[in-house]
Design a protein that fits this description.
alpha+beta, 9-stranded mixed sheet, 14 helices, 9 strands, 36% helix, 19% strand
Length: 387
């Protein structure tokens, strides 16, 4: 991509250095090598300054370029100086928009996920990582389809560990390996994924990386699905059962497990799983709906207890509940009007950064946390370790 011209006349040498303490969370360092798409002549604000300010603004609930620029314009002079912004020379909306829609979205995402991985606590037990995709519906235009991203999320922490774009010339399947390549060590982790990723190439890749897996099986693998459905499940006792009430409904989930080392035509498969979900509304006690889903795993009987398998299967939807749902509902991503250049992917990366940083701090209600950080501009900086 050619360098962007800049209408700003001050040279880069006039830009104050970002005043970051040695104890900072590492975001500034992670962004240090991110290439600037602008021409060097006339650049007033360092790329790192603008991106860190944008992350702070999104933590405070900003959803658009305009909102980010307004947040930057309104912060007190002390906050601006901490960010590295000279008083009286704050980034304009036009400059923020031009820069964010020209950034290399994949390099930005990689830098942010490296930073987020460093903030994630070391899990007490085996780490489980959920892989799932999301369509950025608001990015659709009259002559182009909506953008799509594939992400990997720590099930326990709700932190995005890796993310990659899926362009219109390919699909999630081809991006599975490149996505997980961003995570340095997968040994002894458990990867969970939906039926699209029940692919022989995927399990071969995970075996090479030393990772375990649990994959849902549906109609895209008809032969395998038929094999699983014909197993003698009626003769198998329940290995785990969960009975939950909430949100006006009751859900009963049961898990059955069969060792199938030699009976399933799929590489590395060691156990077959049957998950049955029965749901009913609390005001309709006799009207249950039942859903039966099959899955396979390479985990052996002694490597994971049934209750742990059930938790990982259910925990796969962490990425939907803790990341994608928040982006859709709290940040109204599906109605975003950001469509130009790499803007949709860049904003998705900024939202992931904000949500994951809040999760790492123990936040459960992202909307309330947005309001909390919007009331005091120093709070996002403190969350990022800048003060």
């Amino acid at each position: 991509m050619p360098a962007l011209p800049s209408s700003l006349i001050s040279s880069l040498s006039c830009t104050p250095a970002l005043t970051v303490p040695e104890t900072a969370g590492g975001l500034v360092a992670a962004l240090a090598e991110l290439p600037d798409p602008r021409a060097r002549r006339g650049v007033r604000h360092q790329l790192t300054v603008v991106v860190v300010a944008a992350v702070c603004a999104v933590i405070a609930g900003c959803r658009s370029y305009t909102a980010i620029a307004e947040w930057v314009a309104d912060v007190p002079a002390t906050t601006a100086l901490t960010l590295g912004i000279t008083p009286g020379r704050r980034p304009s909306e036009a400059m923020i928009r031009r820069l964010l829609q020209a950034l290399d979205a994949q390099l930005l995402t990689t830098a942010i996920t490296v930073w987020l991985a460093g903030r994630a606590e070391t899990p007490a037990s085996r780490q489980a990582i959920a892989v799932d995709g999301k369509t950025l519906r608001g990015s659709r235009t009259g002559d182009s389809t909506a953008r799509h991203v594939l992400a990997a999320c720590d099930q326990n922490a709700g932190i995005v560990l890796a993310s990659t774009d899926v362009d219109g010339k390919t699909n999630e399947i081809t991006r599975f390996g490149p996505l997980l390549d961003q995570i340095g060590d997968l040994r002894d982790t458990v990867i969970t994924a939906d039926a699209m990723h029940c692919q022989r190439e995927h399990v071969d890749y995970l075996a090479e990386r030393g990772a375990h897996w649990i994959l849902t099986v549906k109609g895209n693998q008809p032969h395998l699905h038929k094999q699983l459905s014909r197993l003698p499940w009626r003769q198998v006792p329940q290995a785990a059962r969960q009975d939950d009430r909430g949100h006006g409904r009751r859900e009963i989930r049961t898990l059955k497990i069969l060792t199938v080392a030699a009976g399933i035509d799929f590489p590395h498969a060691a156990q077959a799983l049957q998950i049955r979900r029965r749901r009913r509304r609390l005001d309709q006690p006799r009207r249950f709906t039942t859903e039966t889903v099959y899955a396979i795993t390479d985990l052996l009987l002694h490597q994971a207890k049934p209750a742990q398998l059930a938790d990982w299967i259910r925990g796969h939807w962490t990425i939907e509940n803790k990341i994608h749902w928040v982006r859709d509902v709290t940040y109204d991503e599906d109605r975003s009007q950001i469509r130009t250049g790499t803007g949709p992917h860049v904003m998705a990366a900024l939202r992931d950064a904000a949500i994951s940083a809040l999760r790492a701090a123990g936040t459960t209600n992202i909307a309330a946390a947005n309001r909390h950080h919007a009331r005091d501009s120093s709070r996002p900086l403190a969350l990022l370790g800048l003060i």
